[in-house]
Amino acid sequence: MPIDFKSLKKLESLPPGKAAGLPRSDTDKVEVLVKLREGARRPAFVTPRTQITGQIFSAEIPFRDVARLQDDPSVESMSISQKMPYIE
User: Fold this and answer.
1) Domains of the chain listed by start with CATH number
2) Does the global pTM surpass 0.90?
């Protein structure tokens, strides 16, 4: 099911055209940065790749879980990682 990015209030905005490059399937993986609310615990369905601070971590999740993060009260904000252009 396609996600309406405008409905995701916790998702930092994507630059124009970036949404077109996101996964097409709910099971495709996407890397996210997640900021938890102060004192909140990490959602049980997310396994961090890297713990950046006590409240911020990165994770690789199925695309369908972006909506789950949106609905989770412990999540303050999230951002979908973007690949940096290669510089020679």
Assistant:
1) 28-83 (3.30.70.80)
2) no
